[in-house]
Amino acid sequence: MIGDLNLIAILLAALAASLSPGPASLAIAGTSMARGRRAGMFLTFGIIIGSLTWSIAAALGLGAVMMTNAWVFELIRYLGAAYLLYLAWRSTRSALSATPVETRMIQGSARLLILRGAALHIMNPKSILFFGALYSIGMPASASTQQLTLVVGAVGLQATIVYCCYAILFSSSKMTSIYVKARRWFEAVFAAGFGLAGLKIVTAKLP
Question: 100 — phi, psi (to 5°)?
Fold first, then answer.
């Protein structure tokens, strides 16, 4: 507790959200296993950019502004759902393909991976709702600029550590070997995860 700022509670809630299975963790795991640690790290960097974008927006009170302009929120919601369903379609197509993959040879463009990671998080409107609720509970209305900076920085650093650990863990040679042997099953799981996340966003009711 720093003054009226409950930093520990904020970090614990944010940690639970980062550790829980979701589009970000699924994307990092799949990319790291299929394309190696470098690709997983670049995707992670993009996801952190998206996470910080919503975290800063919530800290500045922009979440409330979005909620009063429902069309903005709805636009982001449907774009995010469409992107997740697109990822589900790609994973489904990969799961149905019997073509073997050379996991370490497919690295891709760093810029594209970063952009995809950022888009994955920015186009998920649940992020702004999460950060808005998190900050409204753990931060006083009179929070200073220094306190806001501290919280955004601490939450961002914690998320960076968690997601980087995902990339390192799933890019290990053992995990890569497991992925190569059971690639189609993994892709089926990713397809289901992305699909369910997309449908959940589409069917969610605007609070």
Answer: -70, 155
Cα gap 152→56, rounded to integer Å:
7
Decide: residue 111, CB within 10 A, 0-12 exposed, 13-18 middle, 19+ buried: exposed
pLDDT digits (tens, 9 = 90+) for 57-89: 877 766 555 556 666 667 766 776 777 787 788
For tokens 């990339």, the residue is 167
Q: Where are the alpha helices (DSSP H) in the chain?
A: 7-19, 23-35, 37-59, 62-68, 70-96, 110-122, 126-138, 145-170, 173-181, 183-203
User: Minimal CA–CA distance to 109: which of 101, 117, 99?
Assistant: 117
Do the beta carbons of residue 2 and residue 150 sit within 8 Å?
A: yes
Round to the nearest angstrom and report the end-to-end CA distance of the chain.
Answer: 30
**CA 24 to CA 183: how far, in whole Å?**
19
Q: How many CB atoms lie within 10 A of CB 40?
A: 28
**Mean of pLDDT values over 153-172:** 90
